[in-house]
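Design a sequence for this backbone.
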């Protein structure tokens, strides 16, 4: 609702605040925000940043749906049913990444500091592309179906328990591994072949 006052002739007169509100409305419409989001922003119930993030997440969801539909359409007829079953059984996008995070939370037997766990996730859990190709959607779904396989999880947990008997200081191991990776990364990016040196010794 725009505030106004009546002039002498009964005409509505809008002040500077109303002009600013109209500019905001035009900008929100230009961004393509939904009507509920626009209403929330104008009413002050929803910060503009949150409205934009929610709309972007919705667009990413639609992008995953488009990619999965194309992946089914483009599949070889003999593989189409299996691909459909795979893509229909797992979520896409950010919801899929939550499945990877839950998998590693169950698998890591040693309590890790939050900062180290976040660093591990940043390296070890692939972030879904916001606008995936059909091939990426299939690969991501296949990877997620693996981590949802409880038999694989049982085998990895058994191996972790066996490793713990040999390496009880898992945090120290992960810390050292991270340090070694930090030392070797610039060498790899420069195209250097593996060689003796401080990173290997670490």
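Sequence:
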């Amino acid at each position: 609702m725009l505030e106004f006052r009546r002039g002498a002739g009964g005409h509505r007169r809008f002040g500077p605040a109303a002009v600013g509100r109209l500019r905001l409305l035009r900008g929100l419409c230009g961004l393509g925000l939904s009507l509920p989001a626009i209403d929330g922003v104008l009413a002050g119930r929803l910060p503009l940043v949150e409205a934009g993030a929610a709309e972007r997440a919705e667009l990413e969801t639609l992008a995953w749906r488009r990619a999965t539909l194309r992946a089914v359409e483009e599949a070889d007829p003999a593989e189409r049913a299996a691909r459909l079953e795979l893509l229909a059984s797992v979520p896409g996008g950010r919801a899929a990444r939550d499945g990877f995070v839950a998998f590693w939370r169950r698998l890591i037997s040693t309590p890790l500091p939050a900062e180290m766990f976040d660093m591990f996730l940043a390296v070890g859990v692939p972030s879904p592309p916001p606008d995936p190709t059909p091939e990426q959607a299939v690969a991501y779904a296949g990877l997620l179906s693996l981590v949802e396989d409880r038999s694989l999880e049982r085998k990895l947990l058994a191996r972790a328990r066996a490793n713990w008997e040999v390496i009880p200081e898992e945090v120290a191991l992960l810390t050292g591994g991270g340090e070694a990776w930090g030392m070797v990364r610039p060498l790899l990016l420069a195209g250097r072949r593996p060689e003796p040196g401080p990173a290997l010794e670490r």
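Strands lie at 4-6, 12-14.
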